[in-house]
Amino acid sequence: MQKIVMPQKPTSRAWRKKHFTNDGIGHIRGYAGLVHTANQISEYIPKCHLFVEPFAGLGRISKVVKADIKILNDKSDYAYAYLQKHIPEAVICQMDWYEFTHRYIDGDVFFFDPVWSEIEYKEGCLERSFCDRSVKEYYEQVLKFVKELTELEKLCFVTGNKNNSYLKKSSLYTILIHARQKIMGGRISTLLASNKPLTRYHQTELQSSEKL
Ligand SMILES: C[S@@+](CC[C@H](N)C(=O)[O-])C[C@H]1O[C@@H](n2cnc3c(N)ncnc32)[C@H](O)[C@@H]1O
User: 181: CA distance to ligand 1 center in Å?
Assistant: First the structure.
């Protein structure tokens, strides 16, 4: 007799286990990134000549920003192949983020979305994405580098989860970006930080007088 498989209710335990990590934070499984907030975040990024993204993942941000040239990087084999296939107009690299960012130091806008949670990577997408240090190290190193870029008058953005203490304690300007749609009754939020006061450019051109 054929076995009838009942569809899981979207609120059942099994459904939650399949879609959310078990780290007490309840991250959504799948390739981590800005899938729910990329459009809203992109409004704060001016159109520029050279956009540099050292932790590009599946390119959720780079797909929606406007730039003459996009230079994207990710150490993960999966992300590297994905970016080559889906954003063919961009230059794609597979280097350590630090070495990559030094190589493309001539960029105008730098967007950093490092690893938010090691547990998320172990439970959700470790086999696809890359993680070689602690969250503390990622954010401390990125924030140190943003200081150097600020001295070079570059515009930088860094993202993290809504409670990211490294970004909150930093001297950067921050804003909480909420996803438009609700998921499981709540809205996903991303903390966006920048070395320049956050302005909604709506993808208009960065005027030279606005540059840092
Ligand atoms: C939070 S995800 C970025 C997601 C991306 N913003 C998106 O929305 O698709 C962080 C990314 O950093 C990459 N990564 C981690 N350590 C790295 C390193 N040392 N150098 C380069 N990339 C690294 C991971 O493979 C992962 O794709």
Answer: 24
Report the predicted TM-score, pTM, of the whole model to 2 decimal places: 0.84
Q: Name, of 25-39, 119-133, 181-195, the range with top average pLDDT.
A: 181-195
7-11, 28-32, 99-103: segment of lowest average pLDDT: 7-11
Indicate the top mutation candidate among 34, 55, 99 to test ligand 1's pocket, ranked by most ligand atoms within 8 A of CB. Answer: 55
Mean pLDDT, to the nearest integer, of 97-124? 87
pLDDT at 187: 79
Ligand 1 pocket by Cβ (under 6 Å):
32-34, 55, 57-61, 73-76, 79, 96-97, 113-116, 129-132
Domain-by-domain residue ranges, the chain? 29-197
Q: How far is the CA of 2 from the centre of ligand 1 (A)?
A: 44
Give 124's DSSP letter. Answer: I
Please provide the CATH number assigned to the domain covering 29-197: 3.40.50.150
Closest to 53 measured CA to CA, from 41, 171, 137, 182:
41
Q: Which atom of ligand 1 is nearest to the CA of 33?
A: 8
Torsion of CA 148, 151, 154, 155, to 10 degrees: 90
Tell me how far apart the alpha carbons of residues 29 and 34 are, in angstroms, rounded to a whole number: 13
Q: Ligand 1: distance of its center to the CA of 59 in Å?
A: 10
Between the CA of 208 and the centroid of ligand 1 the distance, in Å, is: 30
Measured distance CA(56)–CA(79) in Å, rounded? 8
